[in-house]
UniProtKB/TrEMBL annotation:
GO terms for biological process: phosphorelay signal transduction system. This is histidine kinase. GO terms for molecular function: ATP binding; protein histidine kinase activity. It comes from the Bacteria. Pfam families: HATPase_c. InterPro entries: 2C_sensor_his_kinase, HATPase_C_sf, HATPase_dom, His_kinase_dom, Sig_transdc_His_kin-like_C. The keyword Membrane applies. Coiled coil: none annotated.
Length: 418
Protein backbone atom coordinates (compact mmCIF):
# COMPACT_ATOMS: atom_id res chain seq x y z
CA UNK A 1 0.00 0.00 0.00
CA UNK A 2 2.85 2.38 0.79
CA UNK A 3 4.39 1.63 -2.60
CA UNK A 4 1.09 2.26 -4.40
CA UNK A 5 0.91 5.71 -2.79
CA UNK A 6 4.57 6.74 -2.80
CA UNK A 7 5.60 5.76 -6.34
CA UNK A 8 2.89 7.83 -8.15
CA UNK A 9 3.73 10.86 -5.98
CA UNK A 10 7.46 10.47 -6.62
CA UNK A 11 6.66 10.18 -10.33
CA UNK A 12 5.48 13.79 -10.37
CA UNK A 13 8.99 15.05 -9.64
CA UNK A 14 9.94 15.04 -13.31
CA UNK A 15 11.71 16.52 -16.32
CA UNK A 16 11.69 15.72 -20.07
CA UNK A 17 15.19 15.05 -21.48
CA UNK A 18 14.26 13.17 -24.70
CA UNK A 19 10.91 14.46 -25.98
CA UNK A 20 7.71 16.15 -24.90
CA UNK A 21 6.13 12.94 -23.58
CA UNK A 22 8.99 10.85 -22.16
CA UNK A 23 9.60 11.98 -18.59
CA UNK A 24 12.40 11.18 -16.15
CA UNK A 25 11.05 11.02 -12.59
CA UNK A 26 11.88 9.87 -9.10
CA UNK A 27 9.21 7.21 -9.53
CA UNK A 28 11.70 4.71 -11.00
CA UNK A 29 14.25 4.79 -8.12
CA UNK A 30 11.41 4.77 -5.57
CA UNK A 31 9.90 1.76 -7.34
CA UNK A 32 13.29 -0.01 -7.41
CA UNK A 33 13.71 0.61 -3.68
CA UNK A 34 10.31 -0.90 -2.86
CA UNK A 35 10.93 -3.91 -5.09
CA UNK A 36 14.11 -4.63 -3.15
CA UNK A 37 12.00 -4.72 0.02
CA UNK A 38 9.28 -6.97 -1.39
CA UNK A 39 9.33 -10.74 -1.25
CA UNK A 40 9.88 -12.35 -4.66
CA UNK A 41 6.36 -13.82 -4.79
CA UNK A 42 4.76 -10.37 -4.49
CA UNK A 43 6.98 -8.56 -7.04
CA UNK A 44 4.76 -9.17 -10.10
CA UNK A 45 1.54 -8.37 -8.27
CA UNK A 46 3.12 -5.28 -6.71
CA UNK A 47 4.49 -4.17 -10.09
CA UNK A 48 1.12 -4.62 -11.84
CA UNK A 49 -0.79 -2.70 -9.15
CA UNK A 50 1.83 0.07 -9.07
CA UNK A 51 1.74 0.45 -12.83
CA UNK A 52 -2.05 0.82 -12.72
CA UNK A 53 -1.90 3.24 -9.79
CA UNK A 54 0.62 5.51 -11.58
CA UNK A 55 -1.55 5.71 -14.72
CA UNK A 56 -4.75 6.32 -12.73
CA UNK A 57 -3.01 8.94 -10.57
CA UNK A 58 -1.85 10.88 -13.65
CA UNK A 59 -5.31 10.70 -15.19
CA UNK A 60 -6.75 12.01 -11.91
CA UNK A 61 -4.26 14.92 -11.98
CA UNK A 62 -5.35 15.76 -15.54
CA UNK A 63 -8.96 15.76 -14.34
CA UNK A 64 -8.07 18.20 -11.57
CA UNK A 65 -5.69 20.45 -13.53
CA UNK A 66 -7.18 20.59 -17.06
CA UNK A 67 -10.16 22.77 -17.95
CA UNK A 68 -11.30 20.50 -20.76
CA UNK A 69 -10.64 17.00 -19.47
CA UNK A 70 -11.23 14.01 -21.70
CA UNK A 71 -10.72 10.61 -20.13
CA UNK A 72 -9.88 8.82 -23.39
CA UNK A 73 -7.27 11.39 -24.40
CA UNK A 74 -5.69 11.40 -20.93
CA UNK A 75 -5.58 7.59 -20.77
CA UNK A 76 -4.14 7.49 -24.31
CA UNK A 77 -1.33 9.83 -23.21
CA UNK A 78 -0.43 8.11 -19.98
CA UNK A 79 -0.98 4.40 -20.52
CA UNK A 80 2.51 3.80 -22.05
CA UNK A 81 3.82 4.47 -18.54
CA UNK A 82 2.07 1.26 -17.49
CA UNK A 83 4.47 -0.72 -19.66
CA UNK A 84 7.50 0.91 -18.02
CA UNK A 85 6.56 -0.14 -14.49
CA UNK A 86 5.22 -3.54 -15.45
CA UNK A 87 8.32 -4.32 -17.56
CA UNK A 88 10.50 -3.14 -14.67
CA UNK A 89 8.75 -5.51 -12.23
CA UNK A 90 8.74 -8.38 -14.74
CA UNK A 91 12.48 -8.13 -15.39
CA UNK A 92 13.14 -7.72 -11.66
CA UNK A 93 11.25 -10.99 -11.16
CA UNK A 94 13.05 -12.75 -14.01
CA UNK A 95 16.51 -11.72 -12.81
CA UNK A 96 15.57 -12.94 -9.30
CA UNK A 97 17.16 -9.87 -7.78
CA UNK A 98 17.85 -10.62 -4.15
CA UNK A 99 20.21 -9.03 -1.70
CA UNK A 100 21.00 -12.52 -0.40
CA UNK A 101 22.14 -13.89 -3.75
CA UNK A 102 24.02 -11.00 -5.32
CA UNK A 103 26.57 -8.44 -4.23
CA UNK A 104 25.63 -4.76 -4.03
CA UNK A 105 27.48 -3.93 -7.28
CA UNK A 106 25.73 -6.73 -9.19
CA UNK A 107 22.32 -5.57 -7.92
CA UNK A 108 23.18 -2.03 -9.05
CA UNK A 109 24.16 -3.25 -12.53
CA UNK A 110 21.01 -5.36 -12.82
CA UNK A 111 18.94 -2.35 -11.75
CA UNK A 112 20.67 -0.28 -14.46
CA UNK A 113 19.89 -2.88 -17.15
CA UNK A 114 16.28 -3.24 -15.98
CA UNK A 115 15.62 0.51 -16.03
CA UNK A 116 17.16 0.97 -19.49
CA UNK A 117 15.10 -1.94 -20.83
CA UNK A 118 11.92 -0.54 -19.24
CA UNK A 119 12.70 2.90 -20.72
CA UNK A 120 13.10 1.36 -24.18
CA UNK A 121 9.75 -0.46 -23.84
CA UNK A 122 8.01 2.79 -22.82
CA UNK A 123 9.67 4.77 -25.62
CA UNK A 124 8.72 2.10 -28.16
CA UNK A 125 5.10 2.12 -26.96
CA UNK A 126 4.98 5.93 -27.21
CA UNK A 127 6.48 5.78 -30.69
CA UNK A 128 3.85 3.26 -31.84
CA UNK A 129 0.87 4.87 -30.11
CA UNK A 130 1.72 8.58 -29.96
CA UNK A 131 4.15 8.79 -32.89
CA UNK A 132 6.75 10.55 -30.76
CA UNK A 133 10.30 11.12 -31.95
CA UNK A 134 13.40 9.63 -30.36
CA UNK A 135 16.83 11.21 -30.75
CA UNK A 136 19.61 8.65 -30.68
CA UNK A 137 22.02 11.18 -29.15
CA UNK A 138 19.76 11.48 -26.09
CA UNK A 139 19.82 7.75 -25.31
CA UNK A 140 23.18 8.17 -23.57
CA UNK A 141 21.52 10.66 -21.22
CA UNK A 142 18.92 8.03 -20.43
CA UNK A 143 21.66 5.53 -19.56
CA UNK A 144 23.40 8.04 -17.27
CA UNK A 145 20.12 8.78 -15.48
CA UNK A 146 19.39 5.07 -15.10
CA UNK A 147 22.90 4.57 -13.69
CA UNK A 148 22.35 7.35 -11.14
CA UNK A 149 18.95 5.97 -10.17
CA UNK A 150 20.23 2.46 -9.56
CA UNK A 151 23.19 3.36 -7.42
CA UNK A 152 21.44 6.10 -5.44
CA UNK A 153 18.75 3.58 -4.53
CA UNK A 154 21.39 0.99 -3.75
CA UNK A 155 23.12 3.42 -1.41
CA UNK A 156 19.92 3.99 0.55
CA UNK A 157 19.15 0.30 0.53
CA UNK A 158 22.62 -0.56 1.85
CA UNK A 159 22.23 2.04 4.59
CA UNK A 160 18.96 0.42 5.59
CA UNK A 161 20.54 -3.04 5.44
CA UNK A 162 23.38 -1.88 7.70
CA UNK A 163 20.83 -0.44 10.13
CA UNK A 164 18.93 -3.74 10.13
CA UNK A 165 22.16 -5.65 10.72
CA UNK A 166 23.05 -3.40 13.64
CA UNK A 167 19.55 -3.82 15.10
CA UNK A 168 19.83 -7.58 14.66
CA UNK A 169 23.24 -7.53 16.31
CA UNK A 170 21.85 -5.60 19.28
CA UNK A 171 19.01 -8.09 19.57
CA UNK A 172 21.38 -11.06 19.39
CA UNK A 173 23.64 -9.48 21.99
CA UNK A 174 20.63 -8.94 24.24
CA UNK A 175 19.61 -12.59 23.83
CA UNK A 176 23.17 -13.74 24.48
CA UNK A 177 23.34 -11.67 27.65
CA UNK A 178 20.07 -13.22 28.78
CA UNK A 179 21.36 -16.71 28.04
CA UNK A 180 24.63 -15.94 29.83
CA UNK A 181 22.70 -14.95 32.94
CA UNK A 182 20.59 -18.11 32.73
CA UNK A 183 23.71 -20.24 32.42
CA UNK A 184 25.31 -18.30 35.26
CA UNK A 185 22.27 -19.09 37.40
CA UNK A 186 22.66 -22.76 36.48
CA UNK A 187 26.33 -22.51 37.36
CA UNK A 188 25.42 -21.13 40.78
CA UNK A 189 22.94 -23.95 41.28
CA UNK A 190 25.58 -26.55 40.41
CA UNK A 191 27.84 -25.05 43.08
CA UNK A 192 25.06 -25.31 45.66
CA UNK A 193 24.28 -28.83 44.46
CA UNK A 194 27.94 -29.82 44.69
CA UNK A 195 27.96 -28.62 48.28
CA UNK A 196 24.77 -30.60 48.96
CA UNK A 197 26.45 -33.70 47.50
CA UNK A 198 29.29 -33.35 49.99
CA UNK A 199 26.78 -32.92 52.83
CA UNK A 200 24.67 -35.93 51.83
CA UNK A 201 27.79 -38.04 51.50
CA UNK A 202 28.82 -37.09 55.03
CA UNK A 203 25.31 -37.75 56.39
CA UNK A 204 25.17 -41.12 54.62
CA UNK A 205 28.44 -42.13 56.22
CA UNK A 206 27.30 -40.92 59.65
CA UNK A 207 24.00 -42.82 59.36
CA UNK A 208 25.78 -46.00 58.33
CA UNK A 209 28.28 -45.64 61.18
CA UNK A 210 25.34 -45.27 63.58
CA UNK A 211 23.81 -48.45 62.18
CA UNK A 212 27.06 -50.36 62.75
CA UNK A 213 27.34 -49.08 66.32
CA UNK A 214 23.75 -49.99 67.11
CA UNK A 215 24.13 -53.36 65.46
CA UNK A 216 27.23 -54.29 67.48
CA UNK A 217 26.52 -52.56 70.80
CA UNK A 218 24.28 -55.07 72.51
CA UNK A 219 25.40 -58.65 73.08
CA UNK A 220 21.85 -59.92 73.31
CA UNK A 221 20.70 -57.94 70.26
CA UNK A 222 17.60 -56.64 71.97
CA UNK A 223 14.51 -56.01 69.90
CA UNK A 224 14.84 -52.24 70.49
CA UNK A 225 18.43 -52.18 69.25
CA UNK A 226 17.57 -54.26 66.22
CA UNK A 227 14.71 -51.92 65.40
CA UNK A 228 16.92 -48.81 65.79
CA UNK A 229 19.73 -50.30 63.73
CA UNK A 230 17.29 -51.17 60.92
CA UNK A 231 15.93 -47.63 60.98
CA UNK A 232 19.45 -46.21 60.86
CA UNK A 233 20.25 -48.47 57.91
CA UNK A 234 17.05 -47.43 56.14
CA UNK A 235 17.88 -43.73 56.72
CA UNK A 236 21.39 -44.29 55.34
CA UNK A 237 19.87 -46.00 52.28
CA UNK A 238 17.36 -43.18 51.71
CA UNK A 239 20.05 -40.54 51.98
CA UNK A 240 22.20 -42.55 49.59
CA UNK A 241 19.32 -42.48 47.07
CA UNK A 242 19.05 -38.71 47.48
CA UNK A 243 22.77 -38.46 46.86
CA UNK A 244 22.51 -40.49 43.65
CA UNK A 245 19.62 -38.32 42.42
CA UNK A 246 21.65 -35.21 43.17
CA UNK A 247 24.60 -36.67 41.30
CA UNK A 248 22.44 -37.26 38.23
CA UNK A 249 21.08 -33.69 38.40
CA UNK A 250 24.58 -32.34 38.93
CA UNK A 251 25.91 -34.29 35.94
CA UNK A 252 23.05 -33.03 33.75
CA UNK A 253 23.56 -29.40 34.75
CA UNK A 254 27.32 -29.63 34.28
CA UNK A 255 26.87 -31.14 30.82
CA UNK A 256 24.33 -28.47 29.86
CA UNK A 257 26.69 -25.69 30.89
CA UNK A 258 29.77 -27.21 29.22
CA UNK A 259 27.88 -27.94 25.98
CA UNK A 260 26.65 -24.35 25.52
CA UNK A 261 27.98 -22.63 22.42
CA UNK A 262 28.84 -19.46 24.34
CA UNK A 263 32.48 -18.87 25.07
CA UNK A 264 33.55 -19.87 28.55
CA UNK A 265 36.22 -17.17 28.78
CA UNK A 266 35.96 -13.45 28.07
CA UNK A 267 38.22 -10.43 28.31
CA UNK A 268 38.05 -8.54 31.60
CA UNK A 269 36.81 -5.39 29.85
CA UNK A 270 33.99 -7.27 28.13
CA UNK A 271 32.95 -8.98 31.36
CA UNK A 272 32.79 -5.71 33.28
CA UNK A 273 30.83 -4.04 30.47
CA UNK A 274 28.41 -6.97 30.50
CA UNK A 275 27.89 -6.74 34.26
CA UNK A 276 27.30 -2.97 34.03
CA UNK A 277 24.79 -3.36 31.17
CA UNK A 278 22.88 -6.07 32.98
CA UNK A 279 22.64 -4.11 36.21
CA UNK A 280 21.71 -0.87 34.46
CA UNK A 281 18.68 -2.72 33.13
CA UNK A 282 18.05 -4.15 36.59
CA UNK A 283 18.19 -0.67 38.14
CA UNK A 284 15.81 0.67 35.48
CA UNK A 285 13.36 -2.15 36.19
CA UNK A 286 13.38 -1.09 39.87
CA UNK A 287 12.86 2.56 38.83
CA UNK A 288 16.16 3.64 40.39
CA UNK A 289 18.51 6.31 39.08
CA UNK A 290 21.91 4.66 39.50
CA UNK A 291 25.11 5.81 37.82
CA UNK A 292 27.69 3.12 37.12
CA UNK A 293 31.45 3.68 36.93
CA UNK A 294 33.90 0.97 35.89
CA UNK A 295 37.63 0.61 35.31
CA UNK A 296 40.05 -2.18 34.39
CA UNK A 297 43.64 -1.59 35.47
CA UNK A 298 46.69 -3.57 34.42
CA UNK A 299 47.17 -6.37 31.90
CA UNK A 300 44.56 -9.10 32.11
CA UNK A 301 43.87 -12.51 30.62
CA UNK A 302 40.47 -13.81 29.58
CA UNK A 303 38.60 -14.95 32.69
CA UNK A 304 36.03 -17.67 33.27
CA UNK A 305 32.69 -16.07 32.47
CA UNK A 306 30.35 -17.88 34.84
CA UNK A 307 32.68 -17.70 37.83
CA UNK A 308 33.12 -13.93 37.52
CA UNK A 309 29.46 -13.31 36.75
CA UNK A 310 28.24 -15.43 39.65
CA UNK A 311 30.52 -13.58 42.09
CA UNK A 312 30.63 -9.97 40.89
CA UNK A 313 27.11 -9.81 39.50
CA UNK A 314 25.78 -10.97 42.88
CA UNK A 315 27.58 -8.13 44.62
CA UNK A 316 26.56 -5.49 42.09
CA UNK A 317 22.92 -6.67 42.13
CA UNK A 318 23.00 -6.46 45.95
CA UNK A 319 24.28 -2.89 45.65
CA UNK A 320 21.47 -2.01 43.22
CA UNK A 321 18.91 -3.40 45.66
CA UNK A 322 20.49 -1.64 48.64
CA UNK A 323 20.42 1.85 47.08
CA UNK A 324 17.12 3.56 47.82
CA UNK A 325 16.26 5.74 44.81
CA UNK A 326 19.43 7.37 43.50
CA UNK A 327 23.08 6.50 43.87
CA UNK A 328 26.25 5.28 42.26
CA UNK A 329 28.13 2.00 41.95
CA UNK A 330 31.85 1.80 41.20
CA UNK A 331 33.23 -1.45 39.80
CA UNK A 332 36.96 -1.88 39.28
CA UNK A 333 39.40 -4.70 38.46
CA UNK A 334 43.10 -4.66 39.33
CA UNK A 335 45.84 -7.08 38.34
CA UNK A 336 48.29 -7.68 41.19
CA UNK A 337 51.07 -10.08 40.18
CA UNK A 338 49.48 -13.54 40.45
CA UNK A 339 46.15 -12.29 41.80
CA UNK A 340 43.12 -10.47 40.44
CA UNK A 341 41.38 -8.00 42.72
CA UNK A 342 37.79 -6.84 42.26
CA UNK A 343 36.29 -3.81 44.03
CA UNK A 344 32.53 -3.21 44.23
CA UNK A 345 31.63 0.06 45.93
CA UNK A 346 28.25 1.70 46.40
CA UNK A 347 26.89 4.70 48.29
CA UNK A 348 23.90 2.88 49.73
CA UNK A 349 22.92 2.84 53.42
CA UNK A 350 25.23 -0.10 54.25
CA UNK A 351 24.51 -2.28 57.29
CA UNK A 352 24.57 -1.46 61.02
CA UNK A 353 28.02 -1.89 62.61
CA UNK A 354 26.80 -4.62 64.96
CA UNK A 355 25.90 -6.79 61.94
CA UNK A 356 29.07 -6.11 59.96
CA UNK A 357 30.70 -9.45 60.87
CA UNK A 358 27.52 -11.41 60.17
CA UNK A 359 26.87 -10.34 56.58
CA UNK A 360 28.50 -13.46 55.12
CA UNK A 361 26.54 -15.83 57.37
CA UNK A 362 23.81 -17.92 55.65
CA UNK A 363 20.38 -16.43 56.31
CA UNK A 364 21.59 -12.93 57.19
CA UNK A 365 19.78 -10.17 55.30
CA UNK A 366 19.06 -6.49 55.63
CA UNK A 367 16.71 -6.40 52.64
CA UNK A 368 12.94 -6.68 52.84
CA UNK A 369 10.31 -6.48 50.14
CA UNK A 370 7.32 -4.11 50.11
CA UNK A 371 5.36 -6.55 52.28
CA UNK A 372 8.09 -6.80 54.92
CA UNK A 373 9.26 -10.25 53.90
CA UNK A 374 13.04 -10.78 54.19
CA UNK A 375 15.18 -12.03 51.30
CA UNK A 376 16.73 -15.49 51.50
CA UNK A 377 20.08 -14.16 52.70
CA UNK A 378 22.16 -16.69 50.76
CA UNK A 379 23.72 -14.32 48.18
CA UNK A 380 26.75 -13.17 50.16
CA UNK A 381 27.29 -16.54 51.82
CA UNK A 382 27.28 -18.10 48.36
CA UNK A 383 29.81 -15.53 47.11
CA UNK A 384 32.05 -16.24 50.10
CA UNK A 385 31.88 -20.00 49.50
CA UNK A 386 32.82 -19.59 45.82
CA UNK A 387 35.68 -17.21 46.62
CA UNK A 388 37.06 -19.58 49.28
CA UNK A 389 36.73 -22.53 46.92
CA UNK A 390 38.86 -20.55 44.46
CA UNK A 391 41.44 -20.04 47.23
CA UNK A 392 40.60 -16.35 47.38
CA UNK A 393 39.55 -13.87 50.04
CA UNK A 394 36.63 -11.48 50.39
CA UNK A 395 36.15 -8.66 52.83
CA UNK A 396 33.64 -5.88 53.31
CA UNK A 397 34.38 -2.42 54.62
CA UNK A 398 31.83 0.19 55.52
CA UNK A 399 32.43 3.89 55.11
CA UNK A 400 30.29 6.99 55.30
CA UNK A 401 29.74 6.72 51.56
CA UNK A 402 28.46 3.11 51.67
CA UNK A 403 29.83 -0.43 51.37
CA UNK A 404 32.95 -1.65 49.59
CA UNK A 405 33.59 -5.31 48.83
CA UNK A 406 37.12 -6.40 47.94
CA UNK A 407 37.63 -9.83 46.39
CA UNK A 408 41.08 -11.24 45.69
CA UNK A 409 41.40 -14.48 43.69
CA UNK A 410 44.51 -16.27 42.42
CA UNK A 411 44.92 -15.72 38.71
CA UNK A 412 45.46 -19.42 38.01
CA UNK A 413 41.92 -20.23 39.15
CA UNK A 414 40.25 -17.80 36.73
CA UNK A 415 42.13 -18.32 33.48
CA UNK A 416 41.98 -21.17 31.03
CA UNK A 417 44.37 -23.96 31.85
CA UNK A 418 47.17 -24.45 29.37
Amino acid sequence: MLMLITVPLAGELKFYPLNETFRITFGAPTFFFFLLLLKRKTVLAGGLLTALSVVLFRIMLDYIMLDHFQFAASAHTHYPTFFFYFTYALLFFVFKVSRMNYSAIVIGLIGLIIEIAADIVELTTQYIVLHTTIHVDSLSDMAVIAFAHSFIVLSFFNMMTIYESQSRERQIRKQNEHMLMLITSLYEETVHLKKTLHNTEAITKASYDLYRVLNQQEKDHSVLNQTLSKKALRIAGDIHEVKKDNQRIFAGLSKTISNESFQNYMKAEELIELIVRINKKYADSLHKQITFFSSVNGEHFSYHVYTILSIINNLVANAVEAIKDEGRIVLSVHRQAEHVEFHVQDNGPGVPLKYEKAIFEPGFTSKYDQFGNPSTGIGLSYVKDIVQELEGTIKATQEDSGMTFIIQIPLRNLIQKG
